[in-house]
Design a protein that fits this description.
Strand content: 15-25%
Strand order of the largest sheet: 12-11-15-16-18-17
Number of helices: 22
Helix content: 25-40%
Distance between the termini: 59 Å
Number of domains: 4
CATH class of the largest domain: Alpha Beta
Number of strands: 23
Largest sheet: 6 strands, mixed
Structural class: alpha+beta
Amino acid sequence: MVRDELDAVLDLIAAGSTADALETSVLDFKTQNRRSVQDTLDDLADAVACFANAGGGTVVVGVADRVPGPDAFVGHDLDVDATRRRIYELTDPSILADVEVVAHACGEVLVIHVPRGVTVHKVKSKMPTERVGTSCMPMSTHRIASLVAERQGDDWSAHDSGVSVQDVDEVAVAIARSRLERSVDPRRRERARTATAELLRALGVVTERNTLTNAGAMLFRGLEQFPVLVSYVYRRTPTGALAANEQLTGPLVAVLQRFFDLAEARIDRTSVSVGSGQQLQVGDLPDGAVREAVVNAVMHRDYRRTDRVTVEHSPTRLAVTSPGGFVAGVRVDNVLTTSSRTRNGNLAQAIRGLDFAETAGAGVDRMYAEMARIGHQPPVYAADPESVTVTLMGGAPNASLARFVATLPADEAEDADTLLVLLTLLTQRLVDATGMTPLLQKPDIAETQAVLERLASDEVRLIETTRESRRNTLPRYRLREEPVAALGSAVTYRRRTADQLDRKVVALVKEAGTINSRMVRIMLDLDVPTTSRLLRDLVDRGFLVRTSTATRGRAVTYGAGPQVPDKRRTGSADGAPRPQLEELDLD
């Protein structure tokens, strides 16, 4: 944690927050045991080893957990050098932490900066622990072995499997060729026509002994220790009885293709018109997000465990659980933006080479973008040292949003940051960098501000600063009028009921005398189809009449119909009083 971030947290505590509410996976607060310095140092060594086994972190000594305000700063009398030395002596392998005293207006604190460990650390004879959320959890033997291998750069998928190149499954090879033949990359299409051994070498899964790596054997033959690679279950309702229960076995290439077929056959689709006669077939769960969720699971899972990847599918939900925790440095709150990391480098390279997955670092971005572009919330991650689960919540797509995104430049329509900002502004009038930083998972507010400035630029013109905040360091932003009009009913806070829309049009025609579709569309921020339906309905019900001979476009004009009250008359032709505007039945 950098000094500015720490100062900001200490200021929050001084202002009335409590330390326990501000603890994170990389920040912990401690108080000194006044009766025993030794017990305090033992406790600090435990905390340091715990952080080192995760991704590193910061321990702050001298702030009470549950006391708000200045009284939380209870101080300490620990020596910096003695603390550093004792932590080094107690940890195994020894950890050399950076210890310093930090002065705050409410009192001094001791700050211990813990680096990420190079292996698994423990405190002498104690069981190793690692930071999970705001707790230190014991590490299982599987987790210890996986972490040691990962930090030593040991790629299980690159190990020699002993399986000969000639023993591959021909069906798996045929599936691989079929995928490569459909690739947009001409080099991959050319690769599909090479001999099997050459194809496997191009994927990087053949050793110097002319045998397959574990990744190659997994992809093209299967390994005995993994009798089931993916367990797929489908329910017609989230908690209903099983409608399908498939245990997918064999070569991973065939397993992935089988999963794609099973899932795609059960995804409901909606046809969305994007103009010029073009139709988009939009799934209630986007195909791209579903594929990436499962491919990421088999690509990054821990193969030192023999558990299977599990997929739970229903019409509006897909949950994928993979064995093993996140790779070191990846967390639930940074999975979107952290640099690409995998414990199975050889397998990841081959899977990408077969066009099963996006390029390195793009898979999670694509999941977020695919969900946001049709109005669904971002993927939800849950993780512990034993497993990672990603859940996609779907449902009927937001057709207005999907239609609008289809009109954006390709770079923006596929950008997760752009789509998450747009999705937020459908239900929230204003955004700023402070509020958007956690959603975009940026490491600092400056990066989020840069995203907002780009979307407000003359090249993109999606959002604009509010007049009253333009001079602020971090201004507030809103959608520009053009996107609001194009998005129509997708913008919920601008959405009006049919009754409200009718009243607005009636008021406009009474004031202006004559109106056309363009006037109505601009005033009510509607799209063209909605405006046409609204005007046609008001004509049918007698609130508007056509006053021109034109039959289409803005040349068609409308005047007040017989159902609109006239200030010069107090009754109708049959003597009955005319209704006032507020009494009109516009439903």
